[in-house]
């Protein structure tokens, strides 16, 4: 979920920056200070250095465990067709939806576990209270 959120945040940020007229290089420099995750911040620094050497963004995300293959392919399409802004928006929309779906599923998983723990605690308390009562009745 953290990976999907970071991908969505980064692509949305880049989409907005490119739409505002900034270059990809300028957008990445600004993005680096906005990302909270240290792994992604370091990776963005590597991407900036690679862009200075003339490498493409998709070549830097390819094989990188922080990004999915889907992200790499869509970015490569955006680079070759010149529609980077639209492709980044597509990626961010998709990954924000994935984060929403995962966060909606968490309560469905946690609720049964919570019920089992609560039920077990109540059963322990009830047995602890009923034991002395049965002992008292047995001695009468």
Task: Provide the fold topology.
Layout: H1 2-19, H2 24-34, H3 38-52, H4 57-61, H5 69-81, H6 84-139
Calculate the mean pLDDT score and round it: 90
Shape: rod-shaped
Figure out the total of helices: 6
Helix content: over 70%
| Distance from first to last alpha carbon | 61 Å
The largest sheet, given as strand count, sense and whether it forms a barrel, is: none
Rounded Rg:
26 Å
Structural class: mainly alpha
* Uncertain spans: none
Beta fraction of the residues? under 5%
Tally of DSSP β-strands = 0
Query: What order do the helices and strands follow?
Result: HHHHHH
Structure keywords:
140 residues; mainly alpha; single chain; rod-shaped
Structure explained in plain terms:
By secondary structure, the chain is mostly helical. It is about 85% helix and about 0% strand. It contains six helices and no strands. It has helices at about 1-20, 25-35, 40-50, 55-60, 70-80, 85-140. The mean pLDDT is about 90.
Tell me briefly what this model is.
The protein is 84% helix and 0% strand. It has 6 helices and no strands.
């Amino acid at each position: 979920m953290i990976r999907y959120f970071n991908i969505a945040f980064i692509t949305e940020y880049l989409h907005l920056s490119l739409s505002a007229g900034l270059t990809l290089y300028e957008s990445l420099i600004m993005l680096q200070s906005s990302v909270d995750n240290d792994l992604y911040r370091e990776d963005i620094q590597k991407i900036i250095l690679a862009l200075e050497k003339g490498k493409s963004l998709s070549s830097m995300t390819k094989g990188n465990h922080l990004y999915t293959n889907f992200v790499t392919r869509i970015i490569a399409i955006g680079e070759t067709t010149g529609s980077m802004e639209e492709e980044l928006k597509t990626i961010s929309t998709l990954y924000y939806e994935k984060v929403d779906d995962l966060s909606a599923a968490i309560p469905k998983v946690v609720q049964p576990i919570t019920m089992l723990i609560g039920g077990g605690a109540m059963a322990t308390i009830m047995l602890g209270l009923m034991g002395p009562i049965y002992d008292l009745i047995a001695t009468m």
